[in-house]
Amino acid sequence: MTDKYCVIGNPIAHSKSPDIHAAFAAATGQDIAYERRLAPLDGFADTVRDLVAQGYRGANVTVPFKLEAAALATRLEERARLAGAVNTLRFDGSEIVGDNTDGPGLVADIVRNAGVPLAGKRILLLGAGGAARGVILPFLREKPEAIVIANRTRATADALVAHFADHVAYPGQIAACGFADIAGPFDVVVNATSASLSADLPPVPASAFRAGTLALDMMYGKEPTPFMVFAARHGATVRDGLGMLVEQAAEAFAVWRGVRPDTADVLAYMRAAS
Ligand code: ATR
Q: Are residues 221 and 129 in the same domain?
């Protein structure tokens, strides 16, 4: 019997996840079906209950349901609990297990695909919303020297530092600041603000970058984002969020199937198709 999975969101028509998972299934010889599922804005829990009743084995969760998915799960993996959000559900008997592979996907893209190890590095994380929060624990596991969280609303960045206080290797490994106080340069700069959605540039100073800084925007599109253009102008090597998208899918596939697919071919194909 083919095991069934889907991605739940609203809107969902644009999602590339079915193509990615179909490619992973073909490459690993796993017999799965994976489709898009539009949930009504007030109908996420009912949608999940339907899937469980229909024998689905799991689901990915995307905008705007990641927080609701964390609340609905009967059990949360640690990385999902600390992220406060779930992008991967696994249906296991009566349990709905919530996981979050977004952060591990970003780390895999930086370390494996971009070839930039994070151990001992200084990381600047722009933004302190859900996207930023999800990557902090996976970043800490790579043992960076420092993670500086810069946010427009400083108090939200301070709250994130406090939230992860028990997970730092030493005091000060994570710090918060406003954009005006960013003291660069950094080895890696990640744009986790939603500014690129509205084609805005977060107010990051040029001094955050040096020649060879890896600057990664979690967003992707046909054109480089204003953040990528700005970072490249100041010497950075830039990357968009397509690699993170493919890697978070590979991590979810591994959660469900116990096999982590190779991503290089799929990423190259998605890049050519986008
Ligand atoms: P997400 O789930 O995508 O992280 P979110 O939780 O709404 O979305 O968080 C959006 C983040 O982008 C926040 O850090 C927000 O800053 P504030 O906390 O000050 O609101 C940040 N953000 C959005 N637009 C921005 C802009 N134009 N410049 C800088 N930061 C921006």
A: yes
195 lines ligand 1 (CB under 6 A): yes
- Confirm or reject: Cβ of 95 under 6 Å from ligand 1: no
The per-residue pLDDT for range 18-57, each reduced to its tens digit, is 999 999 999 999 999 999 999 999 999 999 999 999 999 9
pTM: 0.96
Q: Tell me the CA–centroid distance for residue 192 and ligand 1, in Å.
A: 8
Query: What DSSP line would sit under 219-256, residue for residue?
Result: ---SS--HHHHHHHHTT-EEE-THHHHHHHHHHHHHHH
Instruction: Judge if the beta carbon of residue 85 lies within 6 A of ligand 1.
Output: no
**Tokens of residue 140, six digits:** 């800490």
**Domain limits for position 55:** 3-100+243-273
Q: Could you tell me if 74 and 117 lie in one domain? A: no
126, 189, 194, 201, best to mutate for ligand 1 pocket (most atoms within 8 Å of CB): 194
> Is 207 found in the same domain as 165?
yes
The answer to whether the Cα torsion of 92, 96, 97, 99 is positive or negative is: positive
CATH number at residue 147: 3.40.50.720
User: Does 114 lie in the same domain as 222?
Assistant: yes
